[in-house]
Amino acid sequence: MTSYLTGFAPGAGRREPRAGFTSDAPRIELNGPWRFHLSPSVAEAPTGVADPEFDDSGWGELPVPSLWQMHGHGSPAYTNVDYPFPIEPPFVPDENPTGDYRRDFEVPEGWGGDGAAAVLRFDGVDSCFTAWLNGHELGFSTGSRLPTEFEVTEYLRPGRNVLAVRVHQWSAGSYLEDQDMWWLSGIFRDVTLLARPAGALDDFFVHAGYDAATGAGTLRVETSVPARLTVAELGLVDVPADATHTIAAVRPWTAETPRLYQAELSTAGERVPLRIGFRTVTVEDGLLKVNGERVLFRGVNRHEWHPEHGRALSEETMREDILLMKRHNINAVRTSHYPPHQRFLELCDELGLWVVDECDLETHGFLFVDWRDNPSDDPRWREAYLDRMRRTVERDKNHPSVIMWSLGNESGTGRNLEEMAAWTRRRDPDRPIHYEHDWDSRYVDVYSRMYASHEEVDAIGRRAEEPLEDAGADAHRRALPFVLCEYAHAMGNGPGGLTEYQRLFETHPRCQGGFVWEWIDHGIRRGDHFAYGGDFGEELHDGNFVTDGLVFPDRTPSPGLVEYKKVIEPVRITAEADLLRVTNLYDFRDLSHLSFGWTLEEEGVVVADGTLELPELPAGASTELPVPRLPETTGESWLTVRAVLAEDTPWAPAGHEVAWGQVAVRPAPGAASPATSTTGSTPVSTSVSTSGGTGAAAGPVTLGPGTFDRLTGRLTAIGGLALDGPRLDLWRAPTDNDRGGFPAMEKVWRGVGLDRLRHRVIGIDREDGSLVVRTRVAPAARDIGVLATYRWSLGAGDRLRLTLEVEPQGPWQVPFPRLGLRMALPAWIDRVRWFGRGPGEAYADSRQAARVGRFEASVEELQTPYVFPQENGNRADVRWATLTGPRGGLRVTGEPVFDLTARRWTSEDLDAAAHTVDLVPGDAVHVNLDLAQHGLGTASCGPGVLPEHALTARAATLTVTFAEVAAPTE
Length: 970
Ligand code: GAL
Fold this sequence. Notes:
It is a single chain. By secondary structure, this protein is mostly beta strands. The chain has five domains: about 5-195, Galactose-binding domain-like (Jelly Rolls), CATH 2.60.120.260; about 205-270, Sandwich (Immunoglobulin-like), CATH 2.60.40.10; about 285-565, Glycosidases (TIM Barrel, Alpha-Beta Barrel), CATH 3.20.20.80; about 570-665, Sandwich (Immunoglobulin-like); about 700-965, Beta-galactosidase, Chain A, domain 5. The protein has ten helices and 58 strands. The strands form 13 sheets. Strands 47, 48, 49, 50, 51, 52, 53, 54, 55, 56, 57 and 58 form a twelve-stranded antiparallel β-sheet that branches. β26 (about 295-300), α1 (about 315-325) and β27 form a beta-alpha-beta unit. α3 packs parallel to α4 and α5 (about 455-460) packs parallel to α7. The chain is globular and about 105 Å long. Beta-D-galactopyranose binds near residues 409, 545, 548 and 941.
């Protein structure tokens, strides 16, 4: 066994960590195809690979940067908390996949100029590697998501050079990298050869502060060798860098207004272009402030992920993430749980996002051995901890977007963490320190928690949380600002309860927002679906817990992201009486970059529109405007006010919608008038089948256009439309959130048999012109049940009106998953049009983003492709809907509304499916018309459904009207 693999030292032979930057000094990119050979263990790895003459002609090729499991070498493996190897630090398994990489490259004569040195830089290698240049060993390094540099001057030669790198999947460093993600290996970030001309700048530290009281900026750049600084725009030309320059008036950098000043540092050896952002971060008065203002994080946790490339991201993908975030009103990123590719931070500087930069550290797996031997409190690991923090801070210290350092994630507590904090505070006193897992917050500047319930966040917001035993520690923590570094677990359908969190953040100044867990589903593309944990034969895995993002693996926004965008919108538009209220929820900027327009829609059809003029509205202020003069309407009418970008921005074009509000200006003209049964003109006729039935009583029952089964009382046709008529449905395919929590709702529901209800007909009667079908619906082995009574009558225009009455019987102690009707329509039905909330899905506790309007979609488009199939696609508050195809269809009208789902498989199919490809269109379109569904909550990790969104078992009535839609005539 190679000893460095199981030593505590984080590396050997490496240069000191320093700022990541580019300059005009020459560089040679070493990305591209490398020769590659994977061995199942170190013992089986070839010998002599470092020798420049080694014959690698029998090897294959692998691109650098990449992760070898994403290219068919070995397999990805997913665990959340578990180490996929025995816990016996610092040892690792003998089965330690080892990848050998080789390539050659040319260096021109005189490269870098006289006296130039050369540095070989690796931006990220997972998890441990040794490198040789021209046969000379350079050293080794751990710290997968951190840069490593080797001095190579003495080994580099003009002409052909040969570089060999040996990478091991497992190393002692793996104990410090137990993040909840795929285990993947290889050289997955850039490799570069840097010329360091004589007199080059080795390192520098930009200190650019902003004084909000005076508007002045101060600038000082600490440099490793004397350097000159030019910021032409500020009138600083060739001044000494390492002196304090005060500029009377600068525009500050904020995530909302990411003003950067172009600058240049120059030394005898090189010129370094810089982009400087002036801002000051403080913790004062118990609040986290930037430029003197409390900031509110509308954040996300971002892992680096691509469904084909894993954690090796292109710049295009990084940019796409930021554009998507900005377009969805997100203003902050926690780089969970490691420093990202540095280009990502440059883009955050440029486009504007607050960044909590987290060190590459997690030892969560020690949880399962009661934190015995946790490296965080073991002095043998001290150097490795400090090494990781130093490499994080030194690399990223010049990014204005980085406003807080995070020591790592879920690594317990201990003196090594404390030392990391102390070192960081000394090195960079200008940024606060974050670390969640120490709930006492002893060595941090911000009280941080994950998945705390609304109730607890409220208590913390009032600074009324449970006290710590130690009074001093308690006083310290109680004085700190509070953030939820993770909340609202975006796994599958959800999260529910975002609005309630946001209200708390807006109510309590101490609650400075949070970071939704997490940005992206880490699904791996496999044919036409996405794979998750267990799909690669892992002996230990955590299934689809790896797909818990706001965007799907291919970065399609999920309904959760659309909801988040609405909940965190920086402008709130509401109405009170005849006044519109517009509130500016930005922390810094006014609303002059937005233009406001309105539309009036009657029954979802635009009948008038206009623009609104707003007075100047500074951050935090609100104003009232009269509702614009609107034309008379008769149908249900809504005024929608939209705030859109007035001009193109670097992250979205003019016209991009930032915020909206809707006001009902005229209610529906009254629910459809119930059928009167007094005329007797359309009595229930019990017709006797004449077509070959053996018994006189075998024929169907009819009511107007409706045909009913005599034995079950189920509607079988409306006019010419054959269907499998509505009956009570209480079941939904459990969501990931239903499957989480203690106890999980799914278990509770299955426990009482809600997934296997039986229907018993009690009686089918004619009553006053109505057909009344009484049933009892109940699971085997239980005495609870539901009386479901279907009252069919005739409404105006030959419509069939159905009132479903539901009455629970027995001791119901569980909420219903859903309450409504299910039916099946012919498979040729393919289009759905509706007037209600849309265009996307909505649930009781995730419905802010669904606006009232008229929408249209195919049955396919109504589905949300959660990586793990589950309940989805519910359209809320539907007034009416038509479900049609080439041969006509059905119109359903609510009294007043219903929730609508239509899919080509049943809830049972959805429940049984493990991947999206398991969902195969059947011979019907299955439709649910619901009175309600149980909320979503976020119990896959965090609190469940809030009481106000629970669907408590109770008596209820749902009324809908059905009419056949005639086939279109050509
Ligand atoms: C947190 C952890 C994250 C992730 C999340 C659940 O405890 O910090 O990395 O595992 O839970 O998805």
